[in-house]
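Fold it.
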Amino acid sequence: MKKTLILGAAALAAAAWAPLANAGEVKLGGYYQGRWQIYDNNFVKETAVQSEGERYVQRIQLNMDMVASEKSHAHMVVRVLDSNTVEGADLGNVSDIMGTANPSMGAWNRVSPSTNNGSSANFWEIRQAWLETEAWGVGIKFGNMPITLNDGILVGEDVSSFGGLLLSKTFGNVTVVAGDIRINEGTAMGTAANNTNFGAAQDDANLYALSVFGKAGMADYNATLAYADIGKVSSFQNALNGACTTTNCYDSNNLWAALTLSGKLGYVNAVGTVIYESGYDLKNNTTGAKLNNQLTSSGALAALRLNGNTGFGEWNAYGFMASKNFDNITNDNMVWSTTWDQKGVGGIKLLNIFAASAGGGGLTSPGGGNTNWTAASENMSGIGAGLKIKSAGWTINPMIDYAQVTKTMSGDNFKSAVGGSLLLSTQIQKDTTLSLESGIASPTKANGAPAAVTSDTAYYAQAGLKMTF
């Protein structure tokens, strides 16, 4: 099975170095998941014949653990198929699940996703690959690895990865982790005759993080400082600030400070997180003047998760608020509930989709100064509660959620949405689960929304099978 380093409490950080297999062994695991879905996954009112989708989708994920010794092991996570549509028969459409046939490239196009139905979903994708070891008492992680910081809110991963280097050291009950995450590597070499290229030290984008895990009294804590250093011609800088030119190109930076406390309050488990963000230092490329928008202004986020037991199962609740100007490191990897992000093959993110729709077209061009840029953790607030009940071999998990744009502005499409989800699951064979799932979200238009914006309820209903191995 996959071994993921979750940077949580100190005990978890220390346990992360435990091997999964005996020395010299390679262990392969993963899962196959398939779903039948019927859905409307947007908030736009279509005509009757366009308003609903229906499909079968499948995913195969392989997790490989390669163990050299107790403290040296490497790991790889591969998606063989990801949200691949199940179709094909000898009636003019031969099934080729590895990709669309391309005679000039052999059995399938291995080079350009753009010629494969416009999607790379049919390709083998190495999502994560990293090495863990220890030198003189210092833990080392190198490669493209999963990282979770501050309850998965400051930094979270959904089988995505962060490329770079992590060093960790435990001092008693305190674990310190330092990291250099290479957001973007500029490889252009600058010359005296051509100053368009600024050289490897100037065209990179890096995230430097220092995170401390420990226990203070009854609470576990995770405190983090993260600094983004965005070089002149990195693709990340271009997305934020517009394309750099020879004479008008500026470095940028941002700083996050986060604190997470977790513990037990009577019979309730609580996790609280606060994050402060200083804002990107951006300049207009044509004038050198500093831009003034949501990206450049400072902001904050506060979140609280609660859970506990009842006489018939478990309950959970959450609440969060992000200020208008808050920008997170990872925008949509935190999971407030399945209504926000369903996860799994073909997973539909109802309230994440709402958050992206609420601010107009800002998500497509945040660097253009669009002040309506809204994402799941930015200029958004939400609350929700749910239950998990076990009955007759089934797990029943209902959830109700409410999301609202923290501060609506001129041109915003929506101001709030109410939604919910329901999951029923049972194990039908060893390591094989049947799931029946549904979700719904209904938005409210913002005052002054463009007249062309029409609102519609989004929903899904599906049945799925998942086998782990």
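The chain has four helices and 18 strands.
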